[in-house]
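User: I'm preparing a small set of examples for a lab meeting where we compare how different chains pack in three dimensions. I only have the primary sequence for this one, and I'd like the structure in token form so I can line it up with the others. Please keep the answer compact; I'll paste it straight into my notes.
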Amino acid sequence: MGVDVSSFPGQPGHMSTATDIVPDSERRGFIGALPPRLRPYASLMRLDRPIGTWLLYWPCAWSVALAGVHGRWDLFLWLFLGAFAMRSAGCVYNDIVDRDLDSQVERTRLRPLASGRVSVRSAWVLIALLCAVGLLVLSRLNVAAAVISLVSIAPVAAYPFMKRLTWWPQAWLGLVFSWGALVGWPAVTGGLAWAPILLWFGSIAWVVGYDTLYAIQDMEDDALVGVKSSARRLGDKAALGVGICYAIALLLWGAAIWDVRADWLALLALLPAALHLANQVLRADPRDGEGALRLFRSNRTTGFLVFLGMLVVGLSSG
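Assistant: Understood. Below is the structure token output for the 318-residue chain.
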């Protein structure tokens, strides 16, 4: 499953060109349309896979929406830019930390750092540029929201190491990817409250659920290189585990709504998202990696449905 380094340009025995280690994703679509020198950096940022940006963004948007917006409609755009920059920087950082592991896994062995097409130094420069964009976004937030955003740096930095330490790295990812729920509300109101905290915990459960689906596709490779995941831990019960996580998420999101508007009718705002998540659980199959990946990607729709619900409740409670 490892990479034969002799096939790399500049290595003894190399009999081909650098295109031998360029993944198909860099030869087509958006990345394929870029100048060749930029393509590895676009791959590091996962520009061909925007799903991660959406999943990082939705908790931010939920929090702003449930807070009632109060004229800060610009926050939706600024926080989306921040989610894009920070998700991209996180992907680059993750690849720096995981470059040796990635070289041993079929799905990731052609990543720019694992294949040697981008230097570690260049990757750090890219992170610095993306963090500069993040600082621009911070400048558009009030002090409370900016400080809470900065606190997330520590758990973000620790995340790539979690899959070496625990069977539940998805829980740590949930903590990180849900952080926006703690940022959006104070960006509108100037302080925290129970509602965004409940949103945050609910989002953590959601992330554990959808990232377990994502991890199903890597179970065999992860077992070979000793990487831990919730999908490996749950095995044939992965679908049940995802269902439990989604149920917890819905309960906590409902509690957040109740804290803002104690009305049973307000909870109906979550019904479309609940039906969508139930459909995922019913279709999940631990033996079908491609199907699990499709279900994982459908959580962009989940996020949008929850957003609509939070916006209706937030605007009606203002």
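A couple of notes for your slides: Residues 1-20 have pLDDT under 50 and may be disordered. Residues 74-102 form the longest helix (29 residues).

User: Perfect, thanks.
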